[in-house]
Amino acid sequence: MCLGLDPDPADLSPDSAPDADRTGVADRAASAVVEHCRRLIELAGPACVAVKPQLACFERLGAPGWRALTEVRETAERAGLLVVADGKRGDVPVTARAYGQALVGETETPWGPVRGLDADAFTANPLLGEDAIDPLLDAAAEAGAGVFLLVRTSNPGAARLQDAQLGDRPLHEELAALVAEGAPRLAGESGLSGLGAVVGATAPQHLARLRELMPDSVFLTPGIGAQGGRPEDLAPALAAGRPASVLVAAARSIAGADDPAAAAEQLRESVWNLG
Fold it and tell me: Is the confidence at residue 66, as pLDDT, over 70?
């Protein structure tokens, strides 16, 4: 289980941050976001192994938002949870290298190295091809971190492009091939690779084939709950004998529940019983 953290400051209580007379609006909103995420980690974290902060939800608050993201990462770390930075980054190689430094590495300067976010893994967009993926894998390998490449996403519009035929197979299978080719570079002792794939739960008809194509990769699987995906449909995504091969992400179905702790535990039980 992976707890998605997609905080919307517009939905938070005006009383959930310090007095506006002492802080600016952006700082106050960022403080409220931190408290919101801390509460969710405290309540739902025991049912999870990771959190997945949606970077855009923090970055829209400017510099205070990035500081809030750092605080949330530290909170998750203290709770014993991994942090998957969900930014879906992807660009030409020189920029991809900078993304890797920002998310899991460090940047050399004349005054010494500057640490980035220090996430444990991050999501990335592979559509620019192998040369744009390589710097991300290099950064992950150096940091002992993971990368999840977009393969078949959970949004309704994904079908138009990701299911379109590319030669004799759909685009999502070509993206899966990129993952499989790169998986040995981040191979772990368990046999699973640190190079995983984002594979949505809302199109379960593709799960068996994608598992066949990516036998050694962890699937980060969004779409359960609010987007309509069902835990019982995820069985084909499991690699045989490897329950850690699927990381189920849920955000709104937990954060919006009257009892986030119970919602997270119920979903954890549903997923665990698949194995």
Answer: yes
* 52 given a catalytic annotation: no
Taking all residues of the chain, what is their mean pLDDT, rounded to a whole number?
93
* Residue 128: half-sphere exposure toward Cβ, Cα within 13 Å: 17
Question: Which residue, 129, 107, 126, 109, is CA-closest to 118?
Answer: 107
Q: Give the model's confidence band at 35: pLDDT under 50 very low, under 70 low, under 90 confident, else very high.
A: very high
Mode of pairing for the β-strands spanning 114-115 and 106-107: antiparallel
Q: Which residue has the higher pLDDT, 220 or 224?
A: 220
CA-closest candidate to residue 152, choices 77, 69, 98, 208:
208
Compute the chain's Rg from CA coordinates. Answer: 19
Mean pLDDT of 25-47: 95
Answer for the pair 69, 55: CB distance below 8 angstroms, yes or no: yes
Q: What are phi and psi of 92, to 5 degrees?
A: -60, 160
pTM above 0.70, yes or no: yes
Q: Is the pLDDT of residue 226 over 80?
A: no
Return the exposure string of 90-128: e unless at least 16 CB atoms fall within 10 Å of the residue's CB, then b: bbebeebbbbbbbbbbbeeeeeeeeebbbbbbbbbbbee
Dihedral (CA of 86, 91, 97, 101) sign = negative
At 228, is the pLDDT very low, low, confident or very high (cuts 50, 70, 90)?
confident
Contact by Cβ (8 Å): 5, 251: yes
From 88, 185, 209, 242, the catalytic residue: 88
Tell me the CA distances in angstroms from 25 to 13, 32, 37, 201, one per residue in order.
Answer: 14, 11, 18, 37
Enumerate the H helices of the chain as residue ranges: 25-44, 55-59, 63-78, 93-103, 130-143, 158-162, 171-182, 207-213, 252-255, 260-272
